[in-house]
Specification:
It contains 14 helices and 2 strands, in the order βααααααααβαααααα. The protein has 361 residues and is mainly α.
Length: 361
């Protein structure tokens, strides 16, 4: 029996996109692209969607074999484990960014200072618990909370509509195409999440209406992300550089909403749910790779190892999103691109290689 229904797989992809695309990416891109930031985000969305189409097609083509078995039959055990280690590093960096993003978010919304242990222990315990329980538990939780998150996002964004000004985004391409490309390059670390979906190969029960629902929901959410970014830029304009979190600050622009006090707690609940569930998914994938690499049947040990690595790297970065972002912009984005390119090449190789023992996967 498959671990995921088509509906649950759709929610996993949507939550991953929601958690990494509507919180911090808009201010980051504006620093590089200015008025053309929305076009940089559009390029990123197209880039992501292209990879997603390719990966989902591959998942459907090999729906009865795991990614690990497919690699092993193609490259052998040793090469397979080396490739999985590269993917582990890729996902670990993504997970680390999510944990630090959540911590920085709490610092802004709740208190100016939160002792690390007050955040680290509950966050890692909750996400670690979900990772050990498995992807089915995570996906079911996403199904339950999805309606509340959608309503919350709508409320947070609609309250800012009165403050829009097209002067902040027009004219387009005033300084040529270079700022747009620089903005795209700056957000590259946020892209490529679809590569991780390869690890769900063989775990999804695809139904006959999957493609219609999957691409309809994904396109709708990507348009929503683009719309939130456009709204954010039209509301804040040049002052975007002083804003750290998109969804948290949009409601506060409206004077009536600001007078209500602590309205941003709504965005706190929304983003906490989305970030924790997505972090749990990433931690589950790290656990899955650990089980494959070390031939383990249980999830507890690889989950603990993954959590330990997250904590060590977080302390190296002083558990600061700013420090992490600076390192990403300076160094890690290029490492990520290399890993991303390697796995795109890998999937192409998998499609080109023809071996009789797995021609009918």
């Amino acid at each position: 029996m498959k671990e995921l229904t088509s509906r649950q797989f759709i929610f996993i992809t949507l939550f991953a996109m929601l958690s990494t695309k509507i919180l911090t990416i808009q201010p980051l891109v504006y620093e590089h692209a200015g008025k053309d930031s929305i076009w940089s985000i559009f390029l990123g969305i197209v880039f992501d969607f292209s990879i997603l189409i390719f990966v989902v097609w591959l998942l459907q083509k090999h729906k009865d074999i795991s990614f690990y078995d497919l690699l092993k039959k193609t490259f052998g055990t040793v090469v397979t484990k080396i490739l999985l280690v590269f993917m582990f590093v890729f996902i670990l960096l993504k997970a680390l960014f999510l944990y630090q993003e959540t911590y920085s978010y709490f610092l802004q919304i709740l208190f100016t200072e939160i002792p690390l242990l007050v955040y680290v222990i509950p966050a890692l315990f909750v996400t670690g618990y979900f990772a050990v329980k498995g992807i089915t538990t995570i996906a079911r939780s996403m199904e339950i909370f999805s309606v509340f998150i959608i309503i919350g996002v709508l409320v947070c964004t609609l309250t800012a509509i009165d403050g829009v000004s097209t002067d902040y985004i027009l004219p387009f391409f005033e300084n040529g195409i270079s700022p747009t490309l620089e903005g795209f390059e700056a957000q590259i670390f946020y892209r490529g999440n679809a590569i991780m979906l390869l690890l769900f190969m063989g775990k999804i029960d695809f139904n006959k209406h999957f493609n219609l629902k999957f691409y309809s929901y994904n396109i709708a959410l990507r348009l929503a992300v683009l719309g939130i970014g456009l709204l954010f830029y039209m509301v804040y304009g040049p002052s975007v550089k002083y804003v750290e979190f998109t969804l948290a600050d949009l409601p506060q622009y409206d004077p009536f909403v600001s007078d209500l006090g602590r309205f941003n707690w709504l965005s706190l609940v929304i983003c906490t749910l989305a970030l924790f569930l997505t972090s749990s998914t990433f931690l589950y994938l790290l656990t899955l790779i650990g089980r494959w690499v070390f031939n383990l049947k249980r999830s507890f040990i690889p989950t603990c190892i993954s959590i330990a690595l997250v904590v060590i790297l977080a302390y190296i970065n002083q558990f600061s999103l700013t420090v992490m972002a600076q390192k990403v912009a300076a160094e890690w984005q290029y490492i990520t691109v290399v890993i991303l390119a390697m796995f795109m090449l890998l999937t192409i190789i998998l499609l080109c290689v023809r071996r009789q023992k797995w021609t009918k996967c």
